[in-house]
Each structure stands twice: as C-alpha cells, then as structure tokens.
Amino acid sequence: MSLRIRKQKRDNRFNINLTDDEAQIFESAANITGIQAGVIMRQMLLKQALAILLADDIEPDFSLDNFLNKGATAHLSRSDEVCQQNQ
Predict the structure, then answer these.
(1) Alpha-carbon distance values, 86 to 8, 10, 33, 58, 77 (Å)
(2) Which helix (H) or strand (E) is 10 found in, with range?
(3) Model pTM greater than 0.70?
(4) How far apart are CA 68 and CA 6, in angstroms?
(5) Angle at 33 (CA atoms; ends 30, 36), nearest 5 degrees
(6) 66 φ, ψ to 5°?
(7) CB of 30 within 8 A of CB of 36?
(8) Buried b (16+ CB within 10 A) or exposed e, 46-61
(9) Chain segment 10-62, per-residue pLDDT in tens
C-alpha cells in the first residue's frame, strides 16, 4: 500500500532528537501505512503547527512519557473540560 508523494524541493532543514519510543511510533506508522516516516512526520508537524496556531491550550513542557503514564481517568477529565469550554 505504497502511496506516491510528489517530490518538492526543500532547502530548509531541521533536526529533531527523538526518544526510542517516539521513533518507534513513526517507524510503526511507516510500516503499517507504507509511507516513509519522514513524510508522516512532515504532515503531522504541519497539521499540529496549524492546530497550535488556532489553539489556546499550548503545552510548552509536554512530555510523552507523562502523557502515556497518565491514567485514562485523567485523560477523560481533560476531555470533559475541553468539551465544556467549547459549549
């Protein structure tokens, strides 16, 4: 299921350091979809950047480890807060 992505000239380069867990998420997504991890990262980055520009709840100290270790109740209570704010 390989999708062909049109090549574009890219002169700007950024490097990011990922933890093993973060890298594994992208590698798994690439294996499942057949799309290169770099393409997945680029699309995710652009979508997230647009969401952040429109959001008011940016978390500068976001930690994937804390997010994954937080219980389901904490995640659900956060969802309830967001839903109530949007009403």
Answers:
(1) 38, 38, 33, 16, 14
(2) none
(3) no
(4) 34
(5) 40
(6) -65, -40
(7) yes
(8) eeeeeeeeeeeeeeee
(9) 788 888 899 999 999 999 999 999 999 999 999 998 898 888 777 766 677 87
Cβ atoms of 21 and 64 closer than 8 Å: yes
| Residue 28, number of CB atoms within 10 A of its CB | 11
Kindly give the residue spans of alpha helices, DSSP state H, lying in 1-87: 20-33, 37-54, 64-69, 72-86
Classify each residue of 7-27 as buried b or exposed e, where b means 16 or more C-beta atoms within 10 Å of its C-beta.
eeeeeeeeeeeeeeeeeeebe
The span from the CA of 55 to the CA of 50, in Å, is 9
Q: Give the integer Cα–Cα distance in Å for 74 and 68.
A: 11
pLDDT at 79: 54
- Is the distance from CB of 19 to CB of 64 less than 8 angstroms? yes
Nearest to 1 by CA among 34, 39, 29, 32: 34
